[in-house]
C-alpha cells in the first residue's frame, strides 16, 4: 500500500477529537498528501479498518490512541517551511507515527494537526 495512505491512517488514528467535520479531517490529511485520490483512499481505508465512522459530513474517530508529545513529537533546528500553513520555521516539529515521520510543522500547527487546539 502507498506509504502516504499508511501515514494518513496513522495520523487519523491519533486525532484527539471524538468527531470532526469532514473538511477539518481533510485539512489534516492534506499534511500527508494533496492528491484527492489518496485522500479518498485514506478515508475509505480508515473506515474499513474501523478507525473512523462517517455520517452526514461528520467523521467520528473510534481510536483513543493519542499523540504522546514527549515521545512522538521531535523538534529539529534548521530552515523549514510548515507542511500545513507554509510559514518559515527555524524550529520544526515532526510527528513520529507508525507509517513514518510527518512534518515539519510550526508550534501552533502541530497542535492543530494532532487535535490539541
UniProtKB/TrEMBL annotation:
Highest taxon in the source lineage: Archaea
Q: What is this protein called?
A: DUF5830 family protein
InterPro entries to which the protein is assigned, alphabetical: DUF5830 (IPR043870)
Any matching Pfam family: DUF5830
